[in-house]
Amino acid sequence: MKNISWLLLTYKVPPEPAAKRVALWRKLKGMGAVYLQNGVCLLPRTDDHSRRLKMLENDIAQAKGESVILETLALDPGQEAKVLARFKSERDDAYEEFIDKCDDFERDVAKEVAASHYTYAELEENDVDLKKLQGWLLKIQKLDFYGAGRAAEAQARLARCQVVLDAYARRVFDAHDENR
User: Are 9 and 56 in contact (CB under 8 A)?
Assistant: First the structure.
C-alpha cells in the first residue's frame, strides 16, 4: 500500500442562509475535494490544503456551524483504490466537459470558414475563446491529483483547437492580403 494520506473534513452548517452553504461547497470543489457523503469530504494531504481547510474551518464557525479536520489513511489497498478512483472519476468528468467545449469551439470556427467569414473581430473572439479553454484546462490539471485517464485526450484536444485557430487566422490574414 502506498500509504497516501488525506485530509478529511466533516462539517455541518445551518441550512439558512443557503448562500453560505453553497459558497462553502464551491470553495471545497474548487480545491478539488471529493465528497464521500453530505458534509464529509477528502483532499490530498498537502500544506496548502491544510492551510485552506483551516481557513474554511473559521468560515464554518462564523456561519455557526461545526467542523472537524483529520488526517487519515485508507484501511487497506482496496479502500485506497476506491478513493483514488473517486478523485480520478471526478477529474475525468471535468475533462469530458472540457472536451465537449473543444468540440463546440471547433464547430464554431468551422461555421465561420463555411460562411467565408474572415474578419479580425471573429478571429479575436475565437482567440479569447481559446484562451478560456487554455485557462480551464489548467484549472482541471491543477486539481488532477492522481492522473485521471482523460487528461492526455484533453491536452490533445486543446492542441487541436490551437491548430484550428491557427488555420483560421491564416485565412483571415489571406483575406486581408497580409500574407502576400
Answer: yes
Does a structural domain hold residue 169?
yes
Residues 96 and 169 in one domain: yes
136 closest CA partner among 91, 85, 84 = 91
Angle between the N-to-C axes of helices 120-143 and 77-114, in degrees from 0 to 180, rounded to the nearest 10: 180
Residue 148 lies in a domain: yes
pLDDT in tens, 103-155: 999 999 999 999 999 999 999 999 999 999 999 999 999 999 999 999 999 99
CATH number at residue 44: 3.30.70.240
| Residue pLDDT, tens place only, 76-111 | 999 999 999 999 999 999 999 999 999 999 999 999
* Residue 109 and residue 168 in contact, taking contact as beta carbons nearer than 8 Å: yes
- In the block, cell 461545526 appears at 66
Answer whether 82's CB lies under 8 Å from 36's CB: no
Give this prediction's pTM. Answer: 0.89
Cell 470543489 belongs to 29
| Three-class SS state of 66 | strand
Domain boundary among the residues 21, 49, 73 is at: 73
